[in-house]
Design brief:
alpha/beta, Rossmann fold, 7-stranded parallel beta sheet, 8 helices
Length: 261
């Protein structure tokens, strides 16, 4: 097993499930010290349990926070620094999908909620982690965008708008901070079988969501859902020194679907 992250501190939001959990497990196996953030403390405990099964000596700090709350973001950053004195890598991942509806019927409160987590939360995280990394003179940030941030997604106005915003923040900030030894990139997942995607399918048809899922992936050239661990491999690469000259990139991981049309 590689030790790419030996001595490195990696901060991950949305670490209680899905992409955050898979990425935390991957970097822990490669020697990282972890600061894990989620709104659900019980989910964080499960992630820690899974990490210790594969990396028994891993240092894992668990922090409960709502990423849409600026003060709670400042707190998770400051507590990470209190424990580890630095942040080498930041997977800025926490997000929600929100309810599905036509734009004219999309609730204003729902729109604000989705944008609050997916866009404001990413901005707050970048703002306060960048302060740390700029002082260090180094660091890597990986934001979670979506294929919905590089093309349209029907019935998901809040989600698509927020993820387009994440793409813009990533490209803009990468240009700003490259001179300080900091790289900022985004991943753009497609249909990855996470609890969030399962919930989305259940919104369409609660009784037959698995069949809906089978139909959903047919336009994908690979005819399947991606696995969270497949995204975790990409995140680990982008947080590693192997990706030192990659900056302001938005990298789809969707089986080729975004290139098909």
């Amino acid at each position: 097993m590689s030790n790419r992250f030996e001595g490195k501190v990696i901060l991950i939001t949305g670490a209680g499930s899905g992409l955050g959990q898979a990425s935390a497990i991957q970097v822990a196996k490669e020697g990282a010290k972890l600061s894990l953030v989620d709104l659900n403390n019980q989910a964080l405990e499960e992630t820690k349990k899974l990490i210790l099964e594969v990396a028994a000596e891993a240092e894992v700090l668990l922090l409960t926070a709502d990423v849409s709350n600026e003060e709670e973001v400042k707190t998770y950053v400051s507590k990470t620094i209190e424990k580890y004195s630095k942040i080498d890598g930041f997977f800025n991942n926490a997000g929600i999908e929100g309810k599905q509806n036509l734009t004219e019927d999309y609730g204003i409160d729902e729109f604000r909620k989705v944008v609050g987590v997916n866009l404001n939360g990413v901005f707050f995280g970048m703002k306060y982690v960048l302060e740390v990394m700029k002082k260090q003179g180094s660091g890597k940030i990986v934001n979670t965008a979506s294929v919905g941030g590089i093309r349209g997604v029907g019935n998901q106005s809040g989600y698509a708008a927020s993820k387009h915003g994440v793409v813009g923040l990533t490209r803009n900030s990468g240009i700003e901070y490259g001179q300080f030894g900091i790289s900022i990139n985004a991943i753009a997942p497609g249909a990855i079988m996470t609890p969030m995607v399962e919930g989305s399918l259940k919104q369409i048809d609660p009784e037959n969501w698995e069949e809906v899922g089978k139909q959903f992936v047919q336009p994908n050239p690979m005819k399947r859902f991606g696995k969270p661990e497949e995204v975790g491999y990409l995140v680990a690469f982008l947080l590693s020194n192997e990706a030192n000259f990659i900056n302001s990139a938005v990298i789809p991981i969707d089986g080729g679907q975004s290139y098909k049309y």
